[in-house]
Specification:
This protein has about 475 residues and is of the alpha+beta class. It folds into 3 domains: about 210 residues, PAS domain (Beta-Lactamase, 2-Layer Sandwich); about 90 residues, Signal transduction histidine kinase, dimerisation/phosphotransfer (DHp) domain (Helix Hairpins); about 150 residues, 2-Layer Sandwich (Heat Shock Protein 90), CATH 3.30.565. Helices cover about 60% and strands about 20% of the residues. It contains 14 helices and 12 strands. The chain has a 5-stranded antiparallel beta sheet with strand order 2-1-5-4-3. Strand 3 and strand 4 form a beta hairpin. The longest helix is centred in the N-terminal third of the chain and has 55 residues. It is rod-shaped, with a radius of gyration of 48 Å. The two termini are about 45 Å apart. The relative contact order is 0.06. Bound molecules: adenosine-5'-diphosphate.
Length: about 475
């Protein structure tokens, strides 16, 4: 992979991860970028400024040298020639195409000027002279599109002032070179900062990978995986590795306490179920011989019997779930004709409720290798809910279909439905949408948890589609074994 495609991949990764300003990755990258921009920017500015100063100082020294020599030359020529001609000679002597010299009398009239100045356009000459007449500093002056270092001093011969002389060193070419160098430094600085930002972002992203791994584990880990989940971060920094070890230790403590809790529920359910079943049996036999009881005694007995039954059912459900959790539930595989099984359950259900249960199957005989009793338990729970949460006159539909790979059973009701925010949670243990209604229907919130565990035990899955006041569709998908 070349550098360009690497950069593109990195950028797409960054984009996919949606850079959040509050994330540690963003903050670290921004901080490092700001620090490197400040550092590199300052160095670039310092280099540019130093080079400019060097250029000015070098030329000022040269101009100073000429300025020192000029009055001496004038004095020398003055011994043989008239003052005006002597000044002109001295100026001609020192000037060059890039060095302009001129001298003015005390009244401001031009005394002499170098040929290089004469070659300049008049407007340019007057602008240059105007600037040179102002108090000068050791810096670069811009006159139109040219750059100059300017100098002026008193012109004296034998300590008698004969006017003022001016020197203008044209440094346009050097300035252009300097500007190009400064531009290149700026571009290089920007490129280096961009490259640094990118590499810093990638490095920080890589360094934070172990933390992301930890949060992914914490987000996706299920209760069943608590005991096996371990983080292997051999190449992570010490601090992160220590954190991972702590997390591992915490997971194993959680797993232990979860196991203890499961064991406790299992034991309690087991210990309570037997005596309560006996109590239920006594209550039922008492009820059968209730002719001699008063109506209030009979009512109390009925309530006691139904509550005991409900509690025995709850304990049975808890025991089933505990067995499923400890994977000690055995699935006895046999060939089951689903159409017959569902018809049987529907007939049984018709004895206890007024609902019509219709079966719609793609073929008259859809068969599947599965555990008949467990699948019956799944369907009974789903149909029981469909009956409980819809009106008596509503039709409940069971749809059956089969492909080469899987068999799909759908239990469809037109009942009260389930709001979207509850749909993801109804398969949790003891989760009930409406406590008051659930109590009146006798549910404790374990039916769907059992359905989910059983279906998953059969390597299938169960999903729900529902709309409030329109009804629900529970879909069980099982693989064809
Ligand atoms: P419960 O024993 O309370 O029925 P379940 O685990 O079977 O417990 O169901 C959990 C919750 O899901 C119920 O309290 C109920 O609110 C909702 N629910 C389940 N099936 C249906 C359905 N067919 N229609 C509407 N709500 C349902």
């Amino acid at each position: 992979m070349n550098l360009f495609s690497r950069v593109l991949t990195a950028l797409s990764l960054v984009k996919r991860q949606r850079f959040k300003p509050s994330s540690l990755q963003f903050r670290l990258t921004a901080g490092m970028t700001a620090a490197s921009s400040l550092g590199l920017g300052s160095i670039a500015v310092l280099i540019s400024w130093t080079m400019q100063q060097l250029l000015v100082t070098t030329h000022i020294q040269r101009v100073q040298y000429i300025a020192d020599r000029l009055p001496r030359d004038v004095e020398l020529y003055g011994e043989m020639l008239p003052t005006e001609t002597a000044v002109q000679r001295a100026i001609n002597n020192s000037s060059s195409p890039s060095l302009m010299i001129w001298a003015k009398r005390p009244d401001g009239m031009m005394l002499a000027e170098s040929p290089s100045l004469q070659l300049m356009p008049e407007l340019f000459q007057s602008m240059l002279m105007e600037i040179a007449d102002m108090p000068l500093q050791p810096k670069v002056y811009q006159v139109r599109n040219r750059y100059f270092v300017l100098y002026s001093d008193r012109l004296a011969v034998d300590n008698v002032s004969i006017g003022q002389f001016y020197i203008a060193q044209d440094i346009t070419e050097e300035q252009a070179v300097l500007t190009t160098v400064v531009q290149r430094i700026s571009i290089a600085t920007v490129l280096i900062i961009m490259l640094l930002t990118l590499t810093t972002a990638l490095y920080i992203r890589r360094s934070l990978r172990p933390l992301r791994k930890m949060s992914q584990l914490a987000e996706t880990i299920s209760v069943d995986e608590l005991s096996q989940s371990r983080l292997y971060l051999d190449r992570a920094p010490d601090e992160v590795r220590e954190l991972a070890q702590m997390l591992d230790a915490m997971l194993s403590r959680l797993s232990q306490s979860w196991e203890q809790q499961r064991q406790f529920v299992n034991n309690i359910s087991h210990e309570l179920r037997t005596p309560l079943s006996v109590v239920s049996g006594y209550l039922q036999s008492l009820l059968r011989r209730s002719a001699s009881f008063t109506s209030s005694q009979q009512e109390a007995l009925e309530i006691a019997a139904s509550e005991t039954d409900r509690t025995v059912r709850l304990l049975q459900d808890l025991l089933d779930l505990a067995r499923m959790d400890s994977s000690s539930l055995y699935f006895h595989q046999e060939l089951v004709v689903l159409n017959d099984l569902i018809a049987e359950i529907a007939n049984m259900g018709a004895k206890f409720s007024n609902h019509t249960i219709e079966i719609e199957a793609e073929q008259p005989k859809i068969s599947l290798r599965t555990d008949r009793d467990r699948l019956a338990q799944v369907l009974i729970n789903l149909l029981d809910n469909a009956v409980k949460y819809s009106f008596p006159e509503d039709v409940i539909m069971v749809k059956l279909s089969q492909t080469e790979e899987q068999t799909v059973i759908q239990v469809i009701d037109r009942g009260c439905g389930i709001a979207l925010q509850h749909q993801a949670r109804i398969f949790e243990r003891f989760y009930r949408v409406d406590e008051a209604r659930a109590r009146s229907t006798g549910g404790v919130g374990l039916g769907l948890a059992i359905v989910k565990s059983l279906v998953e035990g059969m390597k299938g899955q169960v999903t729900v589609w529902s709309k409030p006041n329109e009804g629900s569709v529970f879909t069980v998908t099982l693989p064809n074994l």
